[in-house]
Structure formats: structure tokens, C-alpha cells
Write a structure and sequence with these properties.
Number of strands: 6
Largest sheet: 4 strands, antiparallel
Radius of gyration: 15 Å
Number of helices: 1
Order of helices and strands: HEEEEEE
Structural class: mainly beta
Strand content: 25-35%
Helix content: under 10%
Length: 114
């Protein structure tokens, strides 16, 4: 059996502007040191908490209600990626989505594309 040691650091010291609250590595204070030392950096963004929509072109038409953007901004031993997952705020629970809820037409959802 293989044993894996996982260490994590939760950061909340971020620089945000009022127009775009989506997190990036640049917005984490002292991000250069964090990015250099970390094996993996994962950023979570819930625009619903700010009354906003997703800003990036890829997710601009996704309804932010009950969703979260997971951004693997750095991954030393693999590729970086971004994806939308479901978020239940009453239980602070993230879960996978089979389809993305779209803003344009609430009765139609598109298949999840990673």
C-alpha cells in the first residue's frame, strides 16, 4: 500500500477589487512565495456570494446560483484546470454536476465540458 502525506494551507488574505472578485494567484498576498513553495494551488470562487456572474469567457453563461468555480492554478505534477461544481451553502458541500446550469435559457442545460 502507498501512503500519501497531504498538507494544506488555507489562505484568506487576498487582494480584491470591487469589479472582479474572481481569485487569481496574483491576488494572493505574497503570491510569488506561495506559488514557488506550493506543489498545488487551488482557488475557490463563488460569484453568487457577491451577487455577480462568472467573468471568464468560458463560464460567462453559467448560472452562479448553487455553483462554484474550482481553479487548479498551479499543479507541479500535472496540468492546471478550471471547472464548475455544485455547492450547497447550507452544508458547505461541493458536489459534481452532470450538466451546467445556463443563464440564457433556464430550461436547457448543456453537457458538462471539462
Amino acid at each position: 500500500s502507498v501512503k500519501v502525506k497531504v498538507q494544506g494551507v488555507l489562505l484568506s488574505q487576498v487582494n480584491r477589487d470591487s469589479d472582479c472578485r474572481e481569485l487569481t494567484l496574483d491576488r494572493i498576498r505574497d503570491s510569488k512565495q506561495i506559488a514557488d513553495a506550493a506543489t498545488c494551488v487551488i482557488l475557490l470562487y463563488r460569484p453568487e456570494a457577491y451577487g455577480k456572474n462568472y467573468q471568464s469567457e468560458r463560464f460567462r453563461d453559467v448560472d452562479p446560483t448553487g455553483t462554484a468555480l474550482i481553479n487548479v492554478a498551479k499543479r507541479r505534477n500535472g496540468p492546471c484546470c478550471q471547472f464548475i461544481c455544485g455547492f450547497d451553502s447550507s452544508r458547505t458541500h461541493f458536489y459534481p454536476l452532470d450538466t451546467l446550469p445556463r443563464i440564457c435559457n433556464s430550461s436547457t442545460s448543456s453537457p458538462l465540458r471539462l
